[in-house]
């Protein structure tokens, strides 16, 4: 464990003596108590409890106190000077402290290189000669004196706050301020899905609001819906079945469609030798800091380090050069579904910007430019259909400017989406015409019908799991996820509303209903769990974004009907059981349609026509994209970028690093759908005659 080694090295460097004991994994203060005796974690007063907290404002704290002490959250918040502290979500554990649940201690300060967390220590601990803290992992405990702990924290740039609770002791006995056993809360957090306790906890709806605290809202939506789990490597996330099945829907559709175009599936190795990767220096150059390398096997250095693919041009095109000899070998149309790794340092966001992601990459070679050009657009339209027809997300199809295109190619086409809640444009997928550049670099040549040597025209195109993030950001609300029916893993959830004696009959009727829906091809599930209330279940399936809920109670059964509730707008309707199948089929289609329509309406109100520079930044500040007449000159594109940033920053605002977004606007695309551009219309920024309409926006 490399991080742990770093920690011990740091302690050694500081001359801090420690003793480390191994034990079973301990997730709670109680767990530590249970191993204390056999491991000699003495004295008891040195055993610690560490609370990782987030304030309402979003500030993070790690508070360390005696294992046995009772902590009142309100009081603690007051002492920290941070209102309404609660236990911070696991996502912060992974991304900020980079430890797993149950392993938080002040030692984790060494991982918080961006100084996002403030460490605080109970003054009562300061007299201890021996504190026991997990050294970044909860299967060990390491001793350190309180003074040395402070020394360590100072050395890693986290001088701690020492909190004095002595003045509060007296009042803490009165009923109102009666402290909670914080250990109880720890246990709850650590044990996960339990019974009654957890019920209360998860009944709570999502705490952050989409309009107020988008980043935390997004994080809550994707974790509570069970789409994502966090991981202890920054920028990497677990795609759980609830999100992966959406990816499978996208795969099924897209793979079917590209196969109709004659594309074949294949799989190339994920590793690329240094030599192959650099065969094509020009296009790699700008990207090279993002390439991840394997340099060791076990403890021995590899003679030749190998890279993990960030994209597969340099892996596939040497093979293309071997396989393409004659015009009869063309067109060659290959696609692979795989993972790629780009070691980015910008703030990662699940689905949207991750270090490893899933995608498909299509690579094709043609004997004519037209054939290649036609395919570029055919593929782009499939990408549009994934967004609009499956995910109910409107996109703008267009061409990238020379500045924004893939540098190794001839031209780049794109589908651009827009997230209203953050007023950011986001690239949805790209389809490139690579021209003959790669053919020349990789010596891909063939003999045409007349026997002369030719270089093929190539395309490449890709779509990633980012699609899912865009869909979530657009459709989810303050109750949680909202899924378009076409991709929802469960389209209809049946909830029998049982009263004491009615359970058996109701459940069996509900099962019958489920069977008939399933037989009709509806993705349906039933929630008969007896340890949760109906109200809890409504909330639960709402958070997961299931488009339709059917409630079946004794009264409904009597009337041969079922209550239908739509997730999209919470509207309700009683539906006779006799027509339930056709009704649901229709409703699912209607919901799909309404979701796209609603998103399209928002999209069009957020697209503003801007004729002159003075209107440009105000349009962006109003949360819009700007559609402008443009001279299409790279220098003026750069000027617009620069000026929009300056204006924004001079207005006293700073770049928002947490969401890794910048104030500068860039061109999203030259939309294919061009409004009229009367001859002589001036460019909005240069005043020269405009060549086209261009869509601009702040971006992800
Ligand atoms: C550009 C181009 C292209 C196939 C696609 O956009 C669709 C699917 N590839 C990808 N690109 C890189 O070439 C690249 C290269 C390296 Cl070494 C890297 F680290 C990151 C990269 N990112 C994008």
Automatic annotation (TrEMBL):
<dbReference type="InterPro" id="IPR036621">
    <property type="entry name" value="Anticodon-bd_dom_sf"/>
</dbReference>
<dbReference type="Pfam" id="PF03129">
    <property type="entry name" value="HGTP_anticodon"/>
</dbReference>
<dbReference type="InterPro" id="IPR016061">
    <property type="entry name" value="Pro-tRNA_ligase_II_C"/>
</dbReference>
<dbReference type="Pfam" id="PF00587">
    <property type="entry name" value="tRNA-synt_2b"/>
</dbReference>
<feature type="region of interest" description="Disordered">
    <location>
        <begin position="174"/>
        <end position="194"/>
    </location>
</feature>
<dbReference type="InterPro" id="IPR004154">
    <property type="entry name" value="Anticodon-bd"/>
</dbReference>
<feature type="compositionally biased region" description="Basic and acidic residues">
    <location>
        <begin position="185"/>
        <end position="194"/>
    </location>
</feature>
<dbReference type="InterPro" id="IPR002314">
    <property type="entry name" value="aa-tRNA-synt_IIb"/>
</dbReference>
<dbReference type="GO" id="GO:0017101">
    <property type="term" value="C:aminoacyl-tRNA synthetase multienzyme complex"/>
</dbReference>
<keyword id="KW-0547">Nucleotide-binding</keyword>
<dbReference type="GO" id="GO:0005737">
    <property type="term" value="C:cytoplasm"/>
</dbReference>
<dbReference type="InterPro" id="IPR017449">
    <property type="entry name" value="Pro-tRNA_synth_II"/>
</dbReference>
<dbReference type="InterPro" id="IPR007214">
    <property type="entry name" value="YbaK/aa-tRNA-synth-assoc-dom"/>
</dbReference>
<keyword id="KW-0436">Ligase</keyword>
<dbReference type="InterPro" id="IPR004499">
    <property type="entry name" value="Pro-tRNA-ligase_IIa_arc-type"/>
</dbReference>
<dbReference type="GO" id="GO:0006433">
    <property type="term" value="P:prolyl-tRNA aminoacylation"/>
</dbReference>
<dbReference type="GO" id="GO:0005524">
    <property type="term" value="F:ATP binding"/>
</dbReference>
<dbReference type="Pfam" id="PF04073">
    <property type="entry name" value="tRNA_edit"/>
</dbReference>
<dbReference type="InterPro" id="IPR045864">
    <property type="entry name" value="aa-tRNA-synth_II/BPL/LPL"/>
</dbReference>
<keyword id="KW-0648">Protein biosynthesis</keyword>
<dbReference type="Pfam" id="PF09180">
    <property type="entry name" value="ProRS-C_1"/>
</dbReference>
<feature type="compositionally biased region" description="Low complexity">
    <location>
        <begin position="174"/>
        <end position="184"/>
    </location>
</feature>
<protein>
    <recommendedName>
        <fullName>proline--tRNA ligase</fullName>
        <ecNumber>6.1.1.15</ecNumber>
    </recommendedName>
</protein>
<dbReference type="InterPro" id="IPR006195">
    <property type="entry name" value="aa-tRNA-synth_II"/>
</dbReference>
<dbReference type="GO" id="GO:0004827">
    <property type="term" value="F:proline-tRNA ligase activity"/>
</dbReference>
<dbReference type="InterPro" id="IPR036754">
    <property type="entry name" value="YbaK/aa-tRNA-synt-asso_dom_sf"/>
</dbReference>
<keyword id="KW-0067">ATP-binding</keyword>
<dbReference type="InterPro" id="IPR002316">
    <property type="entry name" value="Pro-tRNA-ligase_IIa"/>
</dbReference>
<keyword id="KW-0030">Aminoacyl-tRNA synthetase</keyword>
<dbReference type="InterPro" id="IPR033721">
    <property type="entry name" value="ProRS_core_arch_euk"/>
</dbReference>
<feature type="domain" description="Aminoacyl-transfer RNA synthetases class-II family profile">
    <location>
        <begin position="244"/>
        <end position="484"/>
    </location>
</feature>
<dbReference type="GO" id="GO:0002161">
    <property type="term" value="F:aminoacyl-tRNA deacylase activity"/>
</dbReference>
